[in-house]
Design a protein that fits this description.
Elements (H helix, E strand, L loop, with lengths): L2 H4 L3 E3 L2 E3 L3 E3 L7 H11 L3 E5 L24 E5 L6 H14 L5 E4 L12 H13 L3 E6 L3 H10 L3 E4 L13 H10 L5 E3 L5 H10 L3 E4 L1 H4 L4 H21 L20
Parallel strand pairs: 3-4, 3-10, 4-5, 6-7, 7-8, 9-10
Antiparallel strand pairs: 1-2
Helix pairs in contact: 2-9, 3-4, 4-5, 5-6, 7-9
Length: 264
């Protein structure tokens, strides 16, 4: 095997991870199911919506960190539910206080409640402020290669273009644009949003994406723990297929057993 295959780690902000699957914590029936699904996924990075999930800001309520321990996982606070740069920045600062100075965050600034499509103007403004404030920003964005490059050049540690709308399960609708983003990128490109099932995750990895972040695809499955296990395997298989290098596509048949040299 090549050196790349033997040491195939995802590196974000200088830290290495064996798993290329990043998972969320919303929409599960309870905290027990949340913990079981995350464990089955094999994920090492777990994203948490600070505005919707208790990670210590409400002492009298169940704390997610009791089942998703920061000692075991890299907690990735996110700004889900924020529609302005100001709200997103405030949310990240709150998370930093709650997590004892933790500076790795997932930035998302949404444009409207119907599509949850990113508001790029507000996203750029928030990213600039957060980076100046010492945060390491992983950023949710659209699949525009120009915007993706701007975010990277600003100093974002990972760029996370959507595969399709958040929670839609439609899969990767514009693979060409994501390939264009990857061609120019020097930071990890992680598909964020739209994955519906294991084959969607495998497609993203076969394209060469650094990883996939998902929540609804696991949490909304009939058996979330089993789906989490399936996603783990899909990510691993897709990555191995990318590293192996697929055969070229051909217009016509090519026999598995060549006729040259056969006995007539």
């Amino acid at each position: 095997m090549s050196e790349q295959q033997l040491n195939d780690a995802l590196v974000i902000a200088g830290k290495s991870y064996r798993s290329r699957l990043l998972v969320g914590t919303g929409k599960y029936k309870d905290l027990q199911e949340t913990g079981e699904a995350i464990a089955a996924s094999g994920a090492e990075i777990v994203t948490v919506a600070v505005r919707r999930t208790n990670i210590g800001q409400n002492p009298d309520e169940p704390n997610l960190l009791d089942v998703v321990s920061p000692d075991k996982y890299t907690i990735l606070p996110n700004t889900a539910g924020c529609y302005t740069a100001q709200d997103a920045v405030r949310t990240c600062r709150l998370a930093r206080e709650l997590l004892d100075g933790h500076d790795l965050v997932k930035l998302e600034v949404l444009g409207d409640q119907k599509t949850l499509y990113p508001n790029i103007v507000e996203t750029l403004a928030a990213a600039e402020t957060l980076i100046k404030d010492g945060f390491k920003v992983m950023v949710y964005t659209n699949d525009d290669p120009i915007v993706a490059k701007q975010l990277e050049e600003m100093g974002c540690v990972a760029v996370m273009p959507l595969g399709s709308l958040i929670g839609s399960g439609l899969g990767i609708l514009n693979p060409h644009n994501i390939r264009l983003i990857m061609e120019e990128a020097k930071v990890p490109i992680i598909v964020d949003a739209g994955v519906g099932t294991a084959s969607d995750a495998a497609v993203a990895m076969e394209m060469g994406c650094a990883g996939v972040l998902m929540n609804t695809a696991i949490a909304a499955a009939q058996n979330p723990v089993l789906m989490a296990s399936a996603m783990r395997k899909a990510i691993e298989a897709g990555r191995e297929a990318f590293l192996a290098g697929r055969m070229p596509r051909k217009a016509y048949a090519s026999a598995s057993s060549p006729l040259d040299g056969t006995i007539s």
